[in-house]
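Aim 2, interim progress. The first record below pairs a target sequence with its structure tokens.
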Amino acid sequence: MKESTSPGNIFDAFAKQMFSRVLVFTDFLSCYADPKFVAEIDLKKIKPAPTHYIGKDGDERIVDLVFQCPLKNGTGNLMAVIVFEHQSGSLKRVPQKLHKYISAIWDAETKEGKKVLSAPYFIVLRTAKKPLRGRYPKMSDLLPKRSDGQSLGKTVEIEYDVVDLPAWDFDKLVGGPVLRLALGILKKMVEEDDEEFSEAMLPIREISDEEQKVELTKELLDFVAKAMRAHNRRLEATMVKKALKPIFHEEEKTMIKTIFEEREYIGEARGRVKGRAEGKAEGKAETILTVLRARFHRLPKETEKAIRQMTDPIALDSWAIQAATCQSIDEFAKALK
């Protein structure tokens, strides 16, 4: 199956890839969500929602990110959903989507026999080219109207917050370095200001772990290259050198060679030997590795190898839950056996 290169799909994939990290999502929630909700959550216990709340592969009921957020008072959970909207002008379809999401979550919880259902909290990360003007759309906007202009029928409105990326000044991005990297790169690419994307890369300097610094650099440059290619532009080595020089100092030439050669090799290898099913398995494996690195920083090589070699989607789903709930990397390693 040919990889889509439309800007919307590329932005979606990048946002989900970055925000699937529990630490990044928690950081985003802490900095940009309604403080009244954040005050009720035990931020240290946030984890990805179980997969059955989201839907099976090939039949996703929820395609955005859902996180289970235990309440500090122990009475239940807040189910936080981050909705990505990259091409929307009015968000007019968002209310209908939110009704579907919370219904799917509550249906799953009811089947589990839960007496107290999770409280919903929806936050829309909008990265269209212009800020949203006017009020947020409501479900009633989609319904027929009476002669006096009021909506017919009685419907429940689901409230939601909007984080509007184009409305920000670049220097007002807040949060930890990985969150600011993700938001900054998104902003530059949405604005098609890729000539100056080096400014968005600067938070990498705050990361002390050299291995993580290199991996994040590869990840970000891969996104930038795809986003530019979708607009018939090319990421040039000179542009990359300008972005990396303040970060890696005199090592940027070696970094550029490593990143570009490795990306080309990986791309060719995937194109030759990986089919659609393997691509899905690889995506799940990368998500598991991301969660484990976010929680425990470094992984044993044998554990990483076992995850990357697994192609059974059911086993990977089970490991994803273990990655989010285990208390140590040793506990996770036992679950692999």
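The second target in this work package is listed in the same format:
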Amino acid sequence: MKKQGVFLQELASDATEARFDIIGVIGWEVAFQELRRLFATLGESVKRVVFDIYSPGGDVWDGNGIVQAIGELGKTRETVARVQVAASMATLIAVACQKRTIASNGRFLIHNAWTFTQGDAADHEKAAQHLRDCEAEAAKFYAARTGQTEEAIAALMDEERWLTPEEALAFGFVQEIDDPFSTEDVAAVRAEIEAAGKWPMALVEIPQAATVGKCSDCGHVQKETTPPCAKCGSQNVKEVDEADDYTTNNGTTSDAGGAGDEPPVATVQPGDIEAARLAGFEAGRAAVDETMQARALAGEERVLALTADVKRVQGQLDVSVAEARKLQGERDQARAIAEKTKAALDEATAKITRLLSGGLTFTPSVETWEQALATCGNDYEKARKQFPEVYRAQREHDKANRK
């Protein structure tokens, strides 16, 4: 179920016409940014853009943006508004289009802008001036698009009433009333479709209803619908439906009489019309099935292509993960070597420190108090000063043994 909003109807890649549904409140359900995004998707083949409008109006700012976007669109394409209901801001969107129609039971309403305000007197005065500016802009735009004067438009905005289709047409807001029940319009549309080659041939070949003349005195049927009767000369010739008079209830041809009569005109039985309708339906369904099948195949190809892309990306990811793990291992190995090198460097530094503390002599390493005494020629004081750490270690050892 289609909700309120702005919708682009399904569009073929080579379509020459695009149709937009504008349903709901401008600025809420119908957003300028969304409509502009949809405009950007239109292909170069699109030469005509139709807006089906059913809206009570809405926000001035979003509406003005949409009006400008339609104006830009109209520089390269034909723009058409088909109004069912248009009020307030939606009417400005409608008249922004180059061609405009309204449904035979549609309605059109223009009025002065309004808003809510709060604050002191200065705030309300500013809001009032803003509304006056919006009114003047709207009246000027309506007048330019309809051929009316700004004064006439301003008076109509003050009146604020729903215009009938005939009034909307008279004021120039639309150029045509769209009546789907008009037999003339239906015939014109059918002729247009036939000319474009889009009408089922089975329906094209159905002859239109025709009339003939029938004599009330002798029953003679003739092509002329006016007297006299070609058979008996009577003036009682009446216009009747062709099919009713050439074919009787039992399906046989009635007596047309006279050697000079025109040959009977071929008629169409109800069964023929039903057969033609079914043939057209079947042809349309076959075309739809063919289109849907083509789309399904295209979708399947797209899925396969995406699956291949996913596999390719997954392979690249696996390679990246393997390389990352390899780099992590190399980094761990480098860290272990660095730690080992640091330990060796610390040990070498300690030995150098001890070497320097020994007066730059290459004396053997002294680890015990006995070695310290021997190094100092058993000079107790000299050994204590030269090897204080060994001395303290010996003292601690002696204390521990005395306990």
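The longest strand covers residues 99-109. This observation will shape the mutagenesis plan for the next reporting period.
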